[in-house]
Amino acid sequence: MLNRKLIISAIMFSGTFFGVSFSAQAVPANQDVFFNGTYASGCQFNSKTDGTVTPNALFSATSLGSTATYNGATSGEVKVICSSLLGAVVTASEPEAVTAPTGATFSVKASLLDGLPGTTGKVITGNAESTIKVDMTATSASPIPTGDYRFKVIVTATPN
Fold first, then answer.
1. At 122, phi and psi to the nearest 5?
2. Looking at the predicted structure, is the pLDDT value of residue 59 above 80?
3. pTM check: above 0.85
């Protein structure tokens, strides 16, 4: 019995002397948190409105156009946004006659963006939607034939 008391006393003494602790330690828990998103590069057209062309005169017309000088014509319109802090440049091609009566030829063709030549380009602010008015004219050296006309102008937005 004495030996047992001596052993228990020795264990208790050594535990306190050497700083042994018999308490349980907490284990940390981890949880991953993810964030998803998309940053689209470049430019995107959000909408467009087609325009109409009318002749420059009631009889013997030599040109068609969509600007205010052509009675009854309407401008086209595009809405564009470019994800670039430095903005972008928007340009427009020369009008191309997609549908025209036989014999219709045009010697001078021009596109306009907000009244400026389309080939020059219009600078727009980056990361903000811009609405741009698109117009066109097509002129012939001789009177144009009567009939249905359809023109295409390609508008391009290039981020800086």
1. -120, 125
2. no
3. no
